[in-house]
Records
---
Amino acid sequence: MTVCLLCQQALKKRILFSDLLLLRREQEGICSDCQEKFSPISEIHCPTCFKEGEEASCTDCLYWSNKGLEVSHESLYRYNEQMADYISRYKFIGDYLLRTVFATELRNYFKNKTDYTLVPIPISEKRMTERGFNQVTGLLSAAGVSFVELLQKEDTKKQSEKNRAERLASKQSFSILANVDVPEKIILIDDIYTTGATIQLAKQILMKNGAKAVTSFSLAR
Ligand SMILES: [Zn+2]
Ligand SMILES: [Zn+2]
């Protein structure tokens, strides 16, 4: 019996016409009840970072804009309770099976972005040892999307353990890996976008090393 990766209830085997919409999800291992609790970002969102419910630039984007920094970020889902629970089980508890849950959405999203090189935000060596995998490359690999690792990260306090002021004041902890060529057009990929501090730091390093256009994407905002 196949069960839902998130709630362990049995997944339907027989497919009725009315289930066709759900089929795609069940192939990736979660039931429709769990799927419905994820909340896709609606039409009303910050034009530059996709923050839900903002009609104009949000306070985070204004903060960057006042520093002369541009934000060009897109995201698929709101960081609601269901997403927080998913991220915590996938990333912090380390359930690697959960990397497949958004495979179809991610594959569809990146289908038309072939002009860009996808660059995942790295995790530090210490985090890699603790977790055993980079949650971002896990999501991309499960989606069958190709990416290039260009960055490395020094060990610092986890972004998730910092308050807003600490996040915004984060010091540069990224550098370019040895012997890589930095392409001109890049989409930086992360699992969650909170204030944008991580993306801005990674972007800064890439621009200094030859990138001309760097946008970003996260599963959740
Ligand atoms: Zn479920
Ligand atoms: Zn914004």
---
Amino acid sequence: MNKTKSIVVASLMAGLGLTACNQNGEKHRNPGRTYAPDMVYSRAYDAYTYNPVFADSQSSRLPVPGTVARGHELPDHLKEGDTTAYKTFTTNLRFSDDELKEGKRLFDIYCGICHGQKLDGQGPLFASGKFASMPANFKDAKYLHMPVGQMYAAVKFGKNAMGSYSSQLDIKQRWQVIAYIKKVQSENGGAPFALGINNVPANSSTPKADSSSVQKTSDVAKASH
Ligand code: HEC
């Protein structure tokens, strides 16, 4: 009698142990059965496949025009060929030492092959003689005081033999690379490094520190009063 009792108790406890185990882990690992998968999971269209939802039947879509990807800068509105705008175009962005290091990294990847890691226009591609056009020597007097907007335009639109880098570098990265160039230039006879302020023409008597393309919120507030 006693024996049967203890067997019953033992099996009950074992059962409890099993259920506890189930609740703790196994239940979560097992998603169960799906009765009608087509209704539970929507069917994704693969890239480059026929897509009946859109008029042009394409599955690969561009982002909606005018939208800005999360964490990215607003569009710059600089127009190709507007050389007057190039001269004054600048940015509100300021970079920390780490961000300038990133600017150097990007420069070495995208620009160094032509402009040289020393920024002297003697990159391996040009030095090898396989690239006929001499890339800008950023340490040369001709480029030391080049407005940052003109540099930005070269990166965004390209210049003669140099192609555009707008698809490789987003707006912040373009300025980061230019900030890095300006910093190196400041150590080689260029104006003291301060991206945005560098843009003031040498003969200007009233330095305008804030000739930025993006209006500051404080200015907007002033204007509306
Ligand atoms: C394939 C070689 C090549 C690469 C890569 C390249 N450039 Fe250039 N770059 C040139 C050449 C060549 C010129 C001279 C263009 C001219 O004045 O005819 C030039 C000129 C420039 C100028 C001067 C623009 C002006 O208005 O005179 C800037 C600024 C510049 N490059 C920045 C960059 C930056 C920043 C990168 C990297 C994102 C880059 N370049 C990558 C070849 C290159």
---
Amino acid sequence: MNRLDRFFEKIEQIGVDVALVYNVEYTSKPSTYYLSGFTGSFSILVLNRDKQFIITDSRYFEQAKQQTKFQLIEYRNGDLFENIKTVVEEFKPKTIGLEFQRVSHNVFLKISEKIKANFIPIDSVMESMRSVKEPQEIENIRKAISISEKAFLKTIESIKENVTEKEIAAEFEYNMKKFGADGTAFETIVISGPRTSLPHGRPSHKKILPGEPITFDFGAVVNGYCADITRTIFFGKPDDEFKKIYQTVYEAQTLALNGGSARMKGKSVDALARNHIIQKGYGQYFGHGLGHGIGLEVHESPRVNSTNEELLPESAVVTIEPGIYIEGKYGVRIEEDVLVKRDSLEKLTNLSRELMVI
Ligand SMILES: [Mn+2]
């Protein structure tokens, strides 16, 4: 069954007569792209099994015709919500499916004032569909990973004393684009020395000095699909404590990579890595979840954390990224992207996981 048919089946099961995907200033770009192929910043999809419409404005008339088979409704001016109402009323719906997490309270009030119907959330329909990847989606993620890794290896070649984190990050992003990325999944993280204890620190004007770790968290985007990879490397000669921390993170990651599968709950895979870090005495320094889904968004379902009671779905792509962060000292994170299989996790990342010393 194709993607749209599966979507229609799922929304019909929860009693939705027509779905409305509201995307203004990219508020629902991933779902819009997933369902229709349209990538613009402004669109409203109105669809069920019988009819599929896309409302957009003159910036995107031509693009919409190229990217989607949905029937184009040209929005020219006047009240947008009146326009939406006219299209929705063609369906005479009693119930309307809406992504509750993607509309502001204000937009919800405007839509629900104009259109009298029951509104049903379809967020979990989108999440569960998107978490199970089709072969073409996995292929796009593989390409994004490959470009990210090439750019990483290229960028670290040119690291010298006294270059700044910002300079390295800029070069890294340039390299990703040069190697074919459509963009970056998030602002590339390059942090060094004591700043590596910030799990999501931003690149600063700090200069790289000998005897310091450097953490890179990076991901290219290809055809809308994100990679998400982290490496902590060492510039100069690492001390024994750093090596011990790196080894602990490495072993924790190995346990999860070797032990995870679609037979396990998200929280059980998290525990494989977390218990090891706790045993080694660093439990308090690993505050975040072990991983998350990646796809059209860099953080999506399923979650690999201590609260996810669900089995990991087969064909999900998730990160496995344990870390230890000691304030005032340094931090280490190693992040792989893996495909969830019935009995195992298939590593999609190819970079060495060993401590790299430059
Ligand atoms: Mn991540």
